[in-house]
Amino acid sequence: MFTELLKNVTQNITRLKMSKQNLKILIIIFILPHTLYAQEISIKELKQKFKNVNKIHKLKNGYEILTNTEAFYTFTNGNKVSKLPAFEPDAYPCGEVYREDYKIKKSNKKLFKYKIDHKESFGYSADSFLKVYYLKGIPKNIDSISFLDGEKRYSWSENSIFFGKKKGYPNKIIVYNNNKIGLYSYDINKKQKLPEKKYRKGDLIPMLEEKFHIKLVEELPLSDIQIKYDDQEGVIKVVNKNSIQFLFDNKPRLYEKSEKITHSFYKVYKDDKVGFIDISENKEYGL
């Protein structure tokens, strides 16, 4: 089929005496996609084509492959490529979806320096339900706090998955003191409801709102570190001068250094050994 297409294109180019500029456009629109994605190869065939394959992840527009010695992408036809082109999502965002918004704010209560407003809604026109978490256990004399990306707002909706965004960690809080930072977290299941305010006749009563206090627990003490988070990966990384730590929920991983090769595969160095980690599965290879 592709041979016939190429033959027809060649005949039309000759007949129309196409300019070089138009020829380039024709190649990009009609020919290039067929050369990249024609004859999709199976995972079984990939394992036969490349030696010592440890893991293959099928992507929308290709594969990422890990062998004993390297990690790389291929097109769906099995040809290696340094980076896969962007692809269109299978579906497109919709307004009528579940959405969560978290905002860090300073509290007006003496016992709590900060609070988090947590708003849940369905669709743009739907009523929102607000939960307010007053934070306990924040260290004294800190400059500020934030979510993992350094911002004071975190949002996620069912539309986020269309852009490859993974649901993050709004329960993880970074605290700042001068040039040092630390990491704290809270367990939403351990929140305690605050007594409800008594209103007098004629008062404006807020609707759909609950207030709680919740305790922060120290995960990493204040120190000279960097905390990095990529919502496309969904993994927290803690970096200092001599090491990098991947904070997976089930088992943290500590290395001397790391190098990102593909979306899922990092080359890692530990105890004079070089190996790989698959961050999508928290699995090491070669160490």
Task: Give structural notes.
- This protein has helices spanning 2-16, 20-37, 43-49; strands at 53-59, 62-67, 71-74, 80-81, 98-106, 114-122, 129-136, 144-146, 153-157, 172-177, 180-185, 192-193, 209-215, 217-223, 226-230, 235-239, 244-247, 253-255, 257-260, 265-270, 273-278, 283-285.
- The protein is mainly β and 287 residues long.
- Among the domains are: 1-38; 98-225, no CATH class.
- It has a 6-stranded mixed β-sheet with strand order 9-5-6-7-13-12, with no helix packed on it. Strands 1-2-3-4 form a 4-stranded antiparallel β-sheet, with no helix packed on it. A 4-stranded antiparallel β-sheet has the order 8-10-11-14, with no helix packed on it.
- The two termini are 46 Å apart.
- The model has no long low-confidence stretch (mean pLDDT 84).
Summary tags:
single chain, 287 residues, mainly beta, six-stranded mixed β-sheet, four-stranded antiparallel β-sheet, 22 strands
Give a short summary of the structure.
The chain has a six-stranded mixed sheet, with no helix packed on it. Strands 1-2-3-4 form a four-stranded antiparallel sheet, with no helix packed on it.
User: What is the tally of beta strands?
Assistant: 22
Please provide the ordered H/E string of secondary-structure elements.
HHHEEEEEEEEEEEEEEEEEEEEEE
Q: Between the first and last Cα atoms, what is the distance in angstroms?
A: 46 Å
| Oligomeric state of this protein | single chain
Helical region count? Answer: 3
> Strands of the largest sheet, in order across it?
9-5-6-7-13-12
Given the helix and strand composition, which structural class is it?
A: mainly beta
Describe the sheet with the most strands: 6 strands, mixed
Q: Low-confidence stretches at least 5 residues in length (pLDDT < 50)?
A: none
Beta content comes to 35-45%
Mean pLDDT: 84
Helix fraction, binned, reads 10-25%
Gyration radius from CA atoms, angstroms = 26 Å
Describe the global form: flat
